[in-house]
């Protein structure tokens, strides 16, 4: 664990021997998981509530580390670091825009420690693209193990659920737009990240940031059923859906609208 975190926290760190034992510890002691630890300190400092116990995750557990190519796409272990994912050759083959996005997440130290699973759970920069891609997650829970859509798991995730991996579809022929808005480019929390994905038939939109992570299903339905008749109509629908998701800042919603409008123009070329 990050030394700065352990010095700040007088915590008991439990080191389970297996993923199943980790889930048992998390549920029994109501303790959060810890891997890279890059989200723990800022989150606790913000909420002024520090855990007294942590469950340490082991990247040597099968399925938790690395990038694997399958017939259905890419399986990414939840404990794969952001830096490892950015440097992996399959990432640039399947998702070139992801490499650029990853290199803009915080600084090198954070990317060397921060994990894919931690970033997704915290609603970090990867969330928007993973949601737009209809990613699936492999989760260990109290009642068993199974895969489910990320968008569903984000809504009904239970305390103690342990993310083992995330599966991205084979999207080598798809069109993407991913953009990030921050106070500064690297060394500050992201205000908003947007993702627009077109697979040749269907358009998907997602956001993450200060207002939370989510798919813009209402906007997607409008574009699918009616197209974009008037730019003003589109902006109104996006703004309304963002506000419903929890994006309360009017200026930030406006910025996200503009990012999405630009992204729609990019991915709709030759569609």
Structural class based on helices, strands and sheet pairing: alpha+beta
Question: Which CATH C-level class of the largest domain is it?
Answer: Alpha Beta
> Can you count the helices?
13
What percent of residues are in strands?
15-25%
Mean pLDDT: 85
Distance between the termini: 47 Å
Instruction: Give the number of domains.
Output: 3
The low-confidence runs, each spanning 5 or more residues with pLDDT under 50, are 1-8
Tags for this model:
single chain, 271 residues, alpha+beta, Uridine Diphospho-n-acetylenolpyruvylglucosamine Reductase, domain 3, Enolase-like, domain 1, 13 helices, 12 strands, 42% helix
Description:
The chain contains 13 helices and 12 strands. It has a 5-stranded antiparallel beta sheet with strand order 4-5-8-6-7. The chain has helices at residues 3-8, 19-29, 40-47, 82-87, 89-94, 96-102, 108-113, 116-121, 125-132, 150-156, 217-225, 231-245, 250-267, and strands at residues 12-14, 33-34, 53-56, 67-70, 73-77, 136-141, 144-149, 162-169, 175-182, 190-198, 203-209, 214-215. It has 3 domains: 5-55; 67-168, Uridine Diphospho-n-acetylenolpyruvylglucosamine Reductase, domain 3 (2-Layer Sandwich), CATH 3.30.465.10; 175-268, CO dehydrogenase flavoprotein, C-terminal domain (Enolase-like, domain 1, 2-Layer Sandwich). The longest helix is centred in the C-terminal third of the chain and has 18 residues, at 250-267.
């Amino acid at each position: 664990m990050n030394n700065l975190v352990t010095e700040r926290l007088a915590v008991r760190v439990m080191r389970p021997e297996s993923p199943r034992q980790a889930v048992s510890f998390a549920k029994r002691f109501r303790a959060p998981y810890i891997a890279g630890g890059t989200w723990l300190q800022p989150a606790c400092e913000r909420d002024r509530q520090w855990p007294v116990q942590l469950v340490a995750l082991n990247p040597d557990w099968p399925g938790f580390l690395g990038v694997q190519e399958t017939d259905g796409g890419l399986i990414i272990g939840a404990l794969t670091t952001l830096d490892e994912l950015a440097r992996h050759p399959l990432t640039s083959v399947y998702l070139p825009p992801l490499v650029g996005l990853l290199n803009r997440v915080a600084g090198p130290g954070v990317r060397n420690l921060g994990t894919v699973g931690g970033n997704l759970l915290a609603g970090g920069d990867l969330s928007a693209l993973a949601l737009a891609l209809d990613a699936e997650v492999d989760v260990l829970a109290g009642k068993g193990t199974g895969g489910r859509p990320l968008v569903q798991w984000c809504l009904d995730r239970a305390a103690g659920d342990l993310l083992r991996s995330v599966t991205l579809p084979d999207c080598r022929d798809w069109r993407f737009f991913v953009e990030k808005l921050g106070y500064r480019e690297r060394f500050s929390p992201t205000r908003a990240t947007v993702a627009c994905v077109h697979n040749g038939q269907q358009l998907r939109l997602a956001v993450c940031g200060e207002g939370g992570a989510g798919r813009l299903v209402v906007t997607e339905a409008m574009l699918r059923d009616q197209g974009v008749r008037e730019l003003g109509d589109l902006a109104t629908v996006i703004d309304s859906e963002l506000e419903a998701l929890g994006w309360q800042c009017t200026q930030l919603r406006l910025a996200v609208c503009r990012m999405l409008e630009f992204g729609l123009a990019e991915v709709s070329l030759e569609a």
